[in-house]
Amino acid sequence: MLSVTSLSSFLYCPRKLFLQKVLKLEEPPSPALVLGSLRHEVHERMAEDEEAIVCGISEYLEYSVFLKKFTDPASTALRNGVIRHSGELRLFDLDLAEVFRRSWGYLLPQIEDRVKLLHRFLKREEVYGEELWKCITPKLLVEERVSDSELGLRGIVDRIELFDEEWIPIELKTGKAPHRGVWPGHEAQIGAYLLLLKLAKRPVSTGFIHYLDSDVKRAVTLSPFLVVHIRKLIGQVKNVLSDSLPPPHLMQKKKCDACSLKEQCYNAKFIEDKIRKVKG
After folding, report:
1. pLDDT above 90 (res 265)
2. Is domain 2-24+139-241 in CATH 3.90.320.10, yes or no?
3. Of 57, 156, 181, 265, whose CA is between 20 and 30 Å from 23?
């Protein structure tokens, strides 16, 4: 099965997709990749811990006390993540304390938004523990695996908000948001997740890309046009990955200049040798 991320990779650069998937070239870690992984880990940990925290509430708590129940473990998770990634971070001469400070600055407003919603239920329902948890909506699924054998596609959704009559998939992205809408690769990715969920008979119609750096959420609706686009992309990606030669270089040289595989990509002999080795 194809990975959903292969669709967005194809839209960014078909040649790079070939180099990575067919020739097995590995992209070295970058600061953005490491920092993005760090934030993803904290988001995942917080979503996983949420039920236990809420079920552990046995009385009404003022907002500031309630918030601390969530920020303390989130702060610890971030600190442990920085330590765990310290070797990679130091490779890029990144100060660990500054990484923590900046990452916490991005994460805290998002934690506060979720906790405000939870606290409204605490205040309104006047129940605690498991009874409080039952009242809360939306609940969250994190790192949810989705696939469809007929479509030949699989992926992992960052998070899904579960409402009574609708599921809303959300992809978390670092980097800048476009002035309007979402980047083409991101549209294909969230659209593919919507399609996979729809094929699994889940109640979906719209998903969101959450650009963490600017804390902006942009909606993507699963229209008939997007479904056609995704199915066409799947065919195009399959063609690239089954071809014996890589696609041509991009005309947009700015992408090439920023690519960590540029040196190998433009080395014709290296590519020929790799193809010979892989294809036999």
Report:
1. yes
2. yes
3. 156
- Cα separation, 266 vs 250, whole angstroms: 11
Each residue of 121-141: pLDDT tens digit? 999 999 999 999 999 999 999
d(CA 241, CA 227): 21
DSSP state of 3: E
Largest Cα–Cα distance in the chain?
70
- Which is it for strands 153-162 and 139-148: parallel, antiparallel or unpaired? antiparallel
Output phi, psi for 52, to 5 deg.
-65, -40
Q: Is the pLDDT of residue 279 over 80?
A: no
> DSSP letters of 182-234?
--HHHHHHHHHHHHHHHHTT---SEEEEEETTTTEEEEEE--HHHHHHHHHHH
Q: 28 — phi, psi (to 5°)?
A: -65, 155
